[in-house]
TrEMBL record:
Descriptive protein name: AINX protein
Organism: Cardinalis cardinalis (Northern cardinal)
PROSITE patterns from the UniProt entry: IF_ROD_1 (PS00226), IF_ROD_2 (PS51842)
Gene label: Ina
InterPro entries: IF_conserved, IF_rod_dom, Intermediate_filament
Domain IF rod residues, every copy: 1-116
Region ranges (Disordered): 1-20
UniProt family annotation: Belongs to the intermediate filament family.
Gene3D superfamilies for this protein: 1.20.5.170, Single helix bin (1.20.5.500)
Coiled-coil positions: 35-94
Keywords from the UniProt entry: Coiled coil, Intermediate filament
Record-linked Pfam families: Filament
GO MF term (any one): structural constituent of postsynaptic intermediate filament cytoskeleton
Length: 145
């Protein structure tokens, strides 16, 4: 009877152990499925991260190219502005030289008019002539730039 009782308890313990082992297998299977799912999600996130890095690198390279082009444009614009400034300075120097030359001719003409008016004071017929008109013929200057 004791043996039967022990056998019954042992069978009950075996059944409980089997139920517990089955439950552990189900939990293990659920964890394995969850782990595979997480592994897939991890791989997907890794691919997305790699794609984002590639896109970022391509965008950064494009921006670097744009920066390089803008720097070249800025350098060219500065050179062009410097060239225009040199041309302007050259023209300003020519203008100043022409102004000085015109002032000198004006003084000469005023001096000759004064001499002419003083020397021909007795000739009234010459005073009735119209005053002389002077025309300016601009010279053509080329810039060395």
């Amino acid at each position: 009877a004791r043996l039967h009782e022990r056998a019954a308890r042992s069978q009950e313990a075996v059944r409980a152990s089997r139920r517990e082992a089955g439950e552990c297998r189900r939990q293990l299977q659920a964890r394995l499925v969850e782990m595979e799912s997480l592994r897939g999600a991890h791989q997907s996130l890794e691919r997305q991260l790699q794609e984002l890095e590639e896109r970022h690198n391509a965008e950064a390279a494009g921006l670097q190219d744009t920066i390089g082009q803008l720097e070249d444009d800025l350098r060219n614009t500065k050179n062009e502005m410097a060239r225009h400034l040199r041309e302007y300075q050259d023209l300003l120097n020519v203008k100043m030289a022409l102004d000085i030359e015109i002032a000198a001719y004006r003084k000469l003409l005023e001096g000759e008019e004064t001499l002419f008016n003083m020397g021909s004071g007795g000739l009234t017929s010459l005073n009735s002539l119209p005053s002389p008109t002077y025309s300016f013929q601009p010279r053509s200057f080329s810039s060395s730039t």
